[in-house]
Amino acid sequence: MDAYAKTKIFYISIGVWLILGVVSYSGWSKHVLTILTGGSVTIPCHYDKKCTQQKKYWFSEIDESNTYTNKTEENLSVIDHPDQSLFTVTMRNLQDKHNGHYYCVVETGEQSPINIIYETQLKIQSAPDVSVVSSNVSGHEGGDISVKCLYSSGYQNKLKQWCRYKDQSCYTVGRNDTSQNSSVQISDDDGGRSFTVLMTGLRLTDSGWYFCSAGEALSPVHLTVTENNNNNTTEVTGNPQKYYICIV
Ligand SMILES: *[C@@H]1O[C@H](CO)[C@@H](O)[C@H](O)[C@H]1NC(C)=O
Ligand SMILES: *[C@@H]1O[C@H](CO)[C@@H](O)[C@H](O)[C@H]1NC(C)=O
Ligand SMILES: *[C@@H]1O[C@H](CO)[C@@H](O)[C@H](O)[C@H]1NC(C)=O
Ligand SMILES: *[C@@H]1O[C@H](CO)[C@@H](O)[C@H](O)[C@H]1NC(C)=O
Ligand SMILES: *[C@@H]1O[C@H](CO)[C@@H](O)[C@H](O)[C@H]1NC(C)=O
Ligand SMILES: *[C@@H]1O[C@H](CO)[C@@H](O)[C@H](O)[C@H]1NC(C)=O
Ligand SMILES: *[C@@H]1O[C@H](CO)[C@@H](O)[C@H](O)[C@H]1NC(C)=O
Predict the structure, then answer these.
(1) Residues of the chain with CATH 2.60.40.10
(2) Are 95 and 39 a contacting pair, CB within 8 Å?
(3) Which CATH superfamily is domain 130-226 in?
(4) Which residue range or ranges hold the Ig-like domain (predicted)?
(5) Does residue 92 line the site of ligand 3, with CB under 6 A?
(6) Which residues line ligand 5 (CB under 6 A)?
């Protein structure tokens, strides 16, 4: 199903907005999160800094429910982090019935009442197509971290990447070109069931949400870079961030 078709279903499920023709859509590429049965996942939804004040929610196509930010239930938390211009969605105890499409939505204003900032499909599997050994890693400024990404045998020949959610910048296994930063090394492991991402010379601005992917399947990872105790830190500037426009 292509992005347009999915969007259309979303329009239909919120038919009023469809009739008004007032949904804006940021056109993400297809993201399929593969999660172990009974497991949990945290998904970041990055929004424009200008949308800090707007209401945000997580929409489930399965039961057509909206869960607004700062709500915590037994198996679902949707928490806003205005300082980082993102809200996170944590789903726990995932079962087959949770398979389906989900959307991060910002209520933007009267002209364009809702803006879909991210959409994803969850696939609950007894052996996830893509997973990570640890989904929450931390390192010190100037130090290194490594992340091991596992994939199922059917994904051996798929494109394997390590990407940052915020600006969708990616590093690709086996690609050797100047656009890839030497501070990130990404290599396929022996046996063809995993690849390893090594980030060296960590900067505070490297903190945030990333994902490992093989083909369209992916698994999110949170990286925390902590400040060193010595004061000899050099000021660095982050990469330009690509955001959708918040119409208010
Ligand atoms: C949370 O998930 C568990 C396991 O599937 C289930 O037994 C429980 O009823 C769920 N809680 C809620 C509030 O849905
Ligand atoms: C939600 O919680 C965060 C802190 O976790 C807070 O900064 C933010 O203002 C809260 N938002 C709302 C709408 O209550
Ligand atoms: C990651 O781990 C740190 C402490 O080790 C914790 O404070 C933080 O909440 C965790 N984050 C997530 C997204 O699990
Ligand atoms: C990348 O390509 C350059 C020149 O083509 C080569 O010298 C270098 O060893 C290559 N690096 C890797 C990691 O393959
Ligand atoms: C690569 O990383 C260095 C610092 O680690 C940074 O200064 C540089 O801008 C980065 N280059 C690209 C293309 O991201
Ligand atoms: C290092 O930072 C601490 C706290 O920020 C400050 O009190 C101290 O004076 C700083 N030392 C130097 C050498 O700048
Ligand atoms: C920190 O900066 C001071 C003064 O600039 C310098 O003397 C010292 O060697 C530096 N320490 C480290 C660990 O770089």
Answers:
(1) 3-125, 130-226
(2) no
(3) Immunoglobulins (2.60.40.10)
(4) 38-115, 128-237
(5) no
(6) 181, 183, 201, 239
